[in-house]
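Reproducibility note. Readers wishing to regenerate the assembly model reported in the main text can use the exact inputs given here. Chain order matters: entities are listed in the order in which they were concatenated for prediction.
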Amino acid sequence: MYLKENILLALSGLRANKMRALLTMLGIIIGISSVITITTIGNAVSRSVSDLFADLGANSIQIYVQSKPDEYGNINWGRGFEEEDLIQDEMIDQYLEMFGSQVDCWAVSQSVGSADALNGNNSAKGNVTGVNANALGIQNINIIAGRDLNEQEVDGDKWVIVLSDRFVRDLFPRLTPQQAIGQEVKLRLAQGTYTFMVVGVYKYEVSGFAATMTGDTSTTIFIPLGVSDTILQDGSTDTSEWMKGYYQVQIRANSTVTDSQLFAQQTEDFFNKRFYRSNPYYQISAQSMDSMIGSMTSMMSTIQTAISVIAAISLLVGGIGVMNIMLVSVTERTREIGTRKALGAKNSAIRIQFIVESMIICMIGGIIGVLLGTTVGLLGSALLKVPGTPSVPAILIAVGFSMAIGIFFGYYPANKAAKLDPIEALRYE
Amino acid sequence: MENKDLIIDMKGIYKRFYIGQPNELEILKGIDLQVYRGEFVSIVGASGSGKSTLMNIIGALDRPTEGSYSLDGVPMGEVPDDLLSDIRNQKIGFVFQTFNLIPRTSALNNVALPMLYGGVPRGLRTRRAKWLLEQVGMGERMSHQPNELSGGQKQRVAIARAMANDPAIILADEPTGALDTSTGRLVMDLFHRLHQQGKTIVLITHNPELALETQRVITISDGRVIREEEGKSLCI
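Running the prediction on these inputs yields the following structure tokens for the assembly.
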């Protein structure tokens, strides 16, 4: 019944004491803004991670070489990789013989090193990676002109290349991606300079969180595995001998696989039983995207929980600060309370007045916190290069929760005010 | 039979503090007091005479330890706090020495406040508050806040506020105590005007000259009424 009057009164009280009000709100502001910041960034990261994994396909499986723990479960730091520890083509062939009917496609890659791509006076920098046939699809690379590398090119000694439309623009300023197909490009690598023919152009993706996770594909130049083998053998020296084989293989299961985690387990068992049983140092681990998403999500939620606990402590401290100021305010306004009682205010009216005031302080603090948190969250997301979106439920909960803090921590001072003896209060100096 | 024109009817009022303790204090020692409708009465007494305690009981801020008191026909026995609030709201208009306007609240809203607590709808509240402020000559300063008003202006707003719910009595505690002589005179003239309009006014003061302006002067000393005399009933 007095709600509007109480709100106006509380606001005019805050205006009269701006600095004090701001300092009082500080705890609430910090608490709420940290919650909003972390939910904004957290949401953005989780979503872009799950977008990435969804792009890669939930039925993707990563197979990689891993240190074998010793009998006590400790990581074995016995020695570095040797060729016998890596995944070899024969292993993949045998695996495909066994599981080929369930595999849609697979990808291995071999980093050759950074290179200057040259066409006359035009040049561009990029990283050269050898890949197997039809590997680009699995890595979420979108061919816009020409085609992916095929089987013959990969197995043979075809000096062909797939690069991004960025490269085309830098190297052939006058040509469209379609026109760039068939053009010659020179790559200057540490091992020497080689000439390639463009067979495909893929769409450049703005470097984002996904790219930082998987290795930025935007500047990557793809060449056939057979060619990268040749180049690496050229560059091989006594001290840094090139090892044939792969540290990891990516597999995409087809639709006949319903349980990708089970399939990952079968894959892992196959490699370990057949090829790594006698290897004392290394083994194979295969993980489905499902389980990777799971571990990513649980990591994110651990971080969120930690921040939330900090925020909760901050809100608690902020709430106590509000209570403290409300107690001061009640003492300062003892005469006013006495006057109100003399004019006929019931205890409940006084209580409501002070609870509303404390609620308004906390709500304004909450709103400032939301604005601050959203700003910081969006800035943070921008720094991480993920599209940040403030979570509306989180904002509503934050404002609601700050009002609840106002009620909770305002109740005791409000009750103290309500119970003042009007005679004593009127006489208070 | 109850006299309808009896606004304040006090019989054998005692007020004791620290009851049962060694320092038990008896402030009021059997006060009988009757104030009739339309009267302008003053209560005088030195500090410590019990006059403030009596005023608190008249004003329903406090309860007597012993004795009977009825205000405008309402017996004030063991009434609960909320009912006391209602009685203060509806039956009594307080005017304080230190004005006691609510800070950061316009004159208009100060006057409207008792009506707010009395549940008067907003539109009516505002209209009556405006009218009351005009009556005390503050029609031009309705939106001013207390810190923008002089002492005399504050007291006029306070008197308008005391009139808000058309109370049975106006209880004025040293209303001119914080004002200079000429401003105090204006405030007293305002009380006389209200009295002429039929208001019942109880003035508590230690200033015998002011007291003599009223119809009846009741002198309190050591918790007892020691004298009742007619004032000069200065009418303007």
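We highlight two features of this model. The CA atoms of residues 174 and 205 of chain B lie 5 Å apart. Helices of chain B lie at 51-58, 81-91, 107-117, 122-135, 151-162, 181-196, 208-212.
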